[in-house]
Amino acid sequence: xSATPGPPASWAPVTSVDEAIAxxxxxxxxxxxxxxxxxxxxMYLEVTKAVGADLAQGFFADAAFMTRLDxxxxxxxxxxxxxxxxxxxxxxxxxVELRGAAGIEPIQFALAGMxxxxxxxxxxxxxxxxxxxxxxxxxGSHLADFQKVxxxxxxxxxxxxRSFESAPELALDQHLQAxxxxxxxxxxxxxxxxxxxxxxxxWELRGEPLARGLFLDGLAAATALxxxxxxxxx
Length: 234
Hints:
By secondary structure, the chain is an all-alpha fold.
């Protein structure tokens, strides 16, 4: 298994979308294409570039909030998907542990990474961003802007799935058909809908450290379980 470039513990958090893109490009350049983390990183890089372009074009009503959310979200990936399984966040551990395993297709790695990042990291990022900016999830255009990303991701998910597999291959290869059946059960839009609901729960629990910790532990465990299912060799 190849390690991510440089010791992750020494990486300073990025402070802009451009820095996040540059960090992902560095990770991609340092890893072999077949590495499971590289498969997710490639997917996330394309999505981050698209969001960055929309931010620059005034697509979002509150660009400052969405920029801060995007940066906070990216930093959770950089911190969570560390090179050594023992040091990685629980939600990321299936991907980190299995990123070099045989019999797992690139699309499985990519979606397992999206599972960890959206189901666990996104609610945390929403609450952290709101706290930092002195706002709340239900304020202003936050939900509307959050939902604007869904259409972008729906399009990206389709194109990315096609980049990993083709219809003729699926028709001829029973293994790929089984993989397609497995990953079809997980969608980015559904995960983001649930992430927003979990962000609302986390927001309500922000003054209850014990309840918040228990909720986050359960969320991490459930996300890790889904990740292991997505990474089943079929």
